[in-house]
Amino acid sequence: MNTVIIGSGNVAYHLAKAFKERLLPVSLFGRNAGELERISDELDLPFYTELPKADLFLICVSDRAVEEVSLQIPYQDALVAHTSGSLPREALKGSYRKACFYPLQTFSRKQKLNYSEIPIFVDAETPEDANVLKHLASEISGSVMEISFEQRKYLHLTAVFACNFVNHLFARAKEIADAQEIPFRYFLPLIDETVKKIHHANPEDVQTGPAVRNDKTILERHEKLITNTETAKIYNVMNESIRTMYHLE
Q1: Rounded distance, CA 195 to CA 136, Å?
Q2: What is the DSSP string of 22-91?
Q3: Which of 24, 146, 213, 217 has a 20 to 30 A CA-CA distance from 87?
Q4: What are the distances in angstroms from CA 1 to CA 25, 26, 97, 249?
Q5: What is the reported pTM?
């Protein structure tokens, strides 16, 4: 299957790299010629500034740009998939076959990834196209699943909690450490152990800390230490959520 990846951002870069590593035929297309050329040089892949014909087009752009980009694809016999976790297939506005090809991962350009460990979720208009995408995804990943848009909406919501919110908490934690001139690297073993636990246990079963112990003295002491209003809100909301989950008074 000849694939064209549309876009030059982090998702486009990593999918192009994953295809290249698996020796799958792929090329790049987009409006940012300079960035496309840089990716092309690094990965040794062809790129185009005029849309070529292909069997599959993977639209790797921001959610707000998907519809506009999708209108540029004139090939009615092509399979076109966006890579958004939160958009339905109907966000694609052409008369071609529509699908979704969603890799569940946080992508940063400089971060090296093991693509075989990244789950890929597919959704297509027909069982035949779903099978095509599942077969393609299995060339890259060892974890492939077909899901409905309704499931994918909740998949994306879960990812926001498990990744985006957690990373924001890391950023807030670093602010507190930095203010006291404590190097954040000292917290990395704690963070690593916290994540390691949930590979083998239900997160609810391994909760620790003053809130789950219902240690009101420590909670009040912490509240007095926090001077940033937003951080104080987060601290109180998180503790209240823990207390609610564990039915604590």
Answers
A1: 30
A2: TT--EEEE-S-HHHHHHHHHHHT--EESSPPP-SEEEE-S-HHHHHHHHTT---TTSEEEE--SS--GGG
A3: 24
A4: 7, 9, 15, 59
A5: 0.90
What pLDDT sits at residue 49?
86
The count of C-alpha atoms lying within 13 angstroms of the C-alpha of 120, restricted to the half-sphere facing its C-beta, is 26
Per-residue tokens: 216 = 């009101």
Q: Which two tokens stand for residue 107?
A: 């992508």
- Decide if 115 contacts 105 (C-beta within 8 A): no
Q: Which residues contact 51 (CB under 8 A, 6 or more apart)?
A: 4, 29, 72, 73, 74
CA dist., res. 137 & res. 141, Å (int):
6
CA 95 to chain centre: 28
Model confidence pLDDT, tens digit, residues 194-206: 999 999 999 999 9
Question: What's the mean pLDDT in 207-219?
Answer: 96
DSSP state letters, 191-235: HHHHHHHTTTS-GGGG--STTTTT-HHHHHHHHHH---HHHHHHH
Distances (CA, A) of 31 to 9, 59, 84, 207: 11, 13, 19, 47
The amino acid at residue 97 is: R
